[in-house]
Write a structure and sequence with these properties.
Elements (H helix, E strand, L loop, with lengths): L1 H11 L11 E9 L3 E9 L2 E6 L3 E17 L6 E20 L3 E14 L3 E2 L2 E2 L4 E15 L4 E12 L10 E11 L1
Antiparallel strand pairs: 1-2, 1-11, 2-4, 3-4, 4-5, 5-6, 6-9, 7-8, 9-10, 10-11
Length: 181
């Protein structure tokens, strides 16, 4: 797994310095439906815009993320932790604006992830290899001189997609701050 993580970070953190305001980094809080809490850090090396016949103007980005999950069962002193590394292509479409000032976007993506422990939160999630599905809303806030500030609320689901008999899945609500630079 260490080899995978090394290759992953080598790929994700390639310098795209000529692509001003297309890179983004985010930090967010995760709350799972099984009393799992965590944090999520993500990086998008580039965002590409496309004009399509079906959806009109869309943005597409590839996001790499690192997640830390913590599960503490009530009445028990021990905690269970897990780390996840994910790579997810995402499509973003503007839905409208709030007060004609703050653009609102819908994002959806399905990617791959590796979790450090397949036995987590009292469950056997079936495999170290999981799919990361996410669906969210993003609100673009004011832009400063060099940074665009966004806020996102997402539903994120991790599952092995039925590739293993054990597939309970893990569901999270994610609140995140995103900075484009």
């Amino acid at each position: 797994m260490l080899k995978f993580v090394s290759i992953y970070f080598s790929f994700i953190f390639i310098s795209f310095s000529s692509l001003a305001n297309n890179q983004a980094a985010s930090a967010g809080y995760l709350h799972g439906f099984d009393d799992i809490d965590g944090i999520r850090f993500a990086y998008r090396p580039v965002t590409q815009s496309f004009d399509t016949q079906w959806l009109g103007n869309i943005d597409v980005y590839l996001e790499g993320s690192v997640n830390y999950w913590r599960y503490k069962q009530e009445g028990i002193d021990e905690t269970d932790t897990n780390f996840t590394v994910a790579l997810t292509p995402v499509i973003v479409k503007q839905l409208g604006t709030i007060y004609n000032q703050y653009p609102v976007f819908l994002e959806a993506g399905i990617g791959v992830s590796v979790v450090s422990d397949q036995h987590f939160a009292g469950k056997d999630i079936g495999s170290h290899y999981q799919f990361e599905d996410k669906l969210g809303l993003i609100v673009a806030l004011k832009e400063s001189e060099s940074i665009q500030h966004n806020f996102a609320m997402r539903f994120i689901h991790y599952s092995n997609g039925g590739l293993n008999d054990d597939n309970p899945g893990l569901d999270f609500i994610n609140l995140a701050y995103i900075a484009y630079f």
